[in-house]
Amino acid sequence: MPEPHDERRRRLRAHFAALDADAAIITQLVNVRYLTGFTGSNGALLVTSASAVLVTDGRYETQAGAQSADVDLIVDRELLRALVARARDAGIRRLAFEDHHVTVADHDALTSLTEGIELTRLGKTVESLRAVKDDVEIEQLRVACATTDAAFADLLDCVHAGMSEREVARLLEERMRDRGAEGPAFETIVASGVNGALPHHRAGDRVLSAGDLVTCDFGARVDGYHADMTRTFAVGHADEWQREVYGVVSAAHEAGRDALVVGAGCREVDAVAREVVEATAYAGRFVHGLGHGVGLEIHEAPWLGQTATGDLADRNTVTVEPGVYLPGRGGVRIEDTLVVRDGAAEVLTLSPRDLFVV
Ligand code: ZN
Ligand code: ZN
């Protein structure tokens, strides 16, 4: 596998001129991981035009050396102090920092440490780099999604009326782990019957029974990358109204998928899918955004919603997850993780989208 972190740091450096900075301090751990591969729970990174310096504490010395062999390593509990000293040695005059993430206390500390060095705001520069996935990331997401698909196939083999939502969630999470996941990408949602009307219902004690629609929203985390998929199935039989709602959500999902093209407005993609629901008797029942980016975080840029800004770029990885929620009756949501490509978007979660009756 090619070493991707050096290339990611190169992409960060390309922003220095526009930021009027000659180095950046990265304190957001997930961004440190993105730029170095380091997965410890304490660390920070200095990127200058010529070097990269990772600092962590003694617990992570061996791990950092192995995961991030191509950067300089400092072992020091005073992360900021150590990196600012290194920046000073390197003659850095203008230092960008992650202003959206640093606490007021850390900012005070940084200000007092950097006397003579001008601080400037990095903003969400690394987050915006992360929104465009490289080949290594797409492969990791592909594996996470395949693990998710496999767990769902296992579930369909054995799910039955009489199981509780919690048992369904446990089974999905167990199967994902059995197949190599580090764990679930987020707390598994299993919403049966009337609970399906709540988009973020947690798996509870309710027992699946004939006539229920059951929405499972779950995903595997593999190598730090998150999969996100939702499928809704029926127990015993599917009534006319259930098939109708399912058909509407399927059509909205298809419209959303088709709208995922390079250059499309994030707000417009949401609108295209939303209009499908709004044109039916279920107008107003699609109560959340169409989707979100996924990667090292389960929710990250770009966002697809009614107040979203920006356009889709090649290699954005996003979910498409329309739903219809009917209080007192139930709901349907269908969600996939996809990669925006030149041409049609590539679907990474490949479980069939037909209405299953189990
Ligand atoms: Zn989801
Ligand atoms: Zn999602």
Question: Could you explain how this protein is built, in words?
Answer:
- The chain is an alpha+beta fold.
- The protein has eleven helices and 19 strands.
- The chain has a six-stranded mixed sheet with strand order 4-3-2-1-5-6, sandwiched between helices.
- Helix 8 (135-158) packs across helix 9 (165-178) and helix 10 packs antiparallel against helix 11.
- The protein is elongated and about 70 Å long.
- The two termini are 41 Å apart.
- The mean pLDDT is 97.
- One zinc ion (ZN) binds next to loops.
- Residues 228, 292, 319, 321, 335 line the site of one zinc ion.
Q: Helix-strand pattern, N to C?
A: HHEHEEHEHEHEHHHEEEEEEHHEEEEEEE
pLDDT averaged over residues: 97
For the termini, the CA-CA separation is: 41 Å
**Heteromolecules bound:** zinc ion
Count of helical stretches: 11
Helix content: 25-40%
Unreliably modeled segments: none
How much β-strand is present in the residues? 15-25%
Shape: elongated
Radius of gyration: 23 Å
User: Which structural class do you get from the secondary structure elements?
Assistant: alpha+beta
Name the strands of the widest sheet in spatial order: 4-3-2-1-5-6
How many strand elements? 19
Most strands sheet: 6 strands, mixed
